[in-house]
Amino acid sequence: MNESLGFAHFLAQADGVARFVLGLLLFGSIGSWYLILTKGVHIYRSNRRSQRFLDAFWEAPNLEAVAAKIRTDGTPEPFSHLLHHGFAAIEHLSRREHAAHLIDAGAPDEMLMRALKRAIEEDKTRMEFGQTFLATVASSAPFVGLFGTVWGIYHALVAIGLSGQGTLDKVAGPVGEALIMTGIGLAVAIPAAIAYNAFVRANSNTLARLNAFAYDVFNFLATGIKASPMRADARATSERVVALARAQGVVGEPPAHPGLAVR
Fold first, then answer.
1. How crowded is the C-beta side of 169, counted as CA atoms within 13 Å?
2. Angle CA(257)–CA(262)–CA(263) in degrees, nearest 5?
3. Which of 115, 48, 55 is nearest to 81 (CA)?
4. Which of 6, 98, 106, 140 has the fewest CB atoms within 10 Å around its CB?
5. What does the domain layout of the chain look like in residue ranges?
């Protein structure tokens, strides 16, 4: 055999179906690595901002200081975003006179709880962005590569049969080239599978901490919306937080639908 075998020779001999399969694998690989790099950097930075915010939160003398920090921090991370929704709910509760909409129905602490749950769900949706694509690539790329291998072997055997040269050296080369597709499929799927599992684990840890933090935020803010005289100091604190947050832009004017938290 005078011509050298290899990936370049395989590409030269590939038909439209094989090139389409290679294109799919290339698209999956580029998309996977883009998500791996961007989400990895985002998670790293978000975790650092979250830890700084939590440290400042627990060291703050009062909720007014926390509201001021949210204003100066700029881009919100999940924990400050959760507290932002809590302040927005308190601001709305301080203005409503009666339950004009279904979202206003229920006790004030129930409305506050709904606002915190909405914040958690919004953050969960953002954190899961791109994971469906990674899961799809991880599960389908090996089979796409295997399809390319089967297609390549089929055409190689047909060509060998037509040439009438069925010796081992004539069969092994084309079949070996076709197996490249399976290797490419595995090379695309393995990083996507590892990244998907890593991101799921990171998101699970963040959501667990966020739910625990939401319980603390609910306790801190709910005490200020109770009417009990024994909680007058806590109520005054929450009212000062609302006034400070509104003045600094942390909590804006109520949206068109009064029950929706500010995003």
1. 4
2. 125
3. 115
4. 98
5. 7-248
Sign of CA dihedral 30, 40, 45, 82: positive
- pLDDT at residue 227 in the model: 37
**In Å, how far from its chain's centre is CA 185?**
25
Closest CA to 263 of 127, 130, 115: 115
- Asked if 175 and 153 touch (Cβ cutoff 8 Å), the reply is yes
Of the two residues 56 and 139, the one the predictor is more confident about is: 139
**Cα gap 214→221, rounded to integer Å:** 10
Q: Evaluate whether 18 touches 181 at the Cβ level (below 8 Å).
A: yes
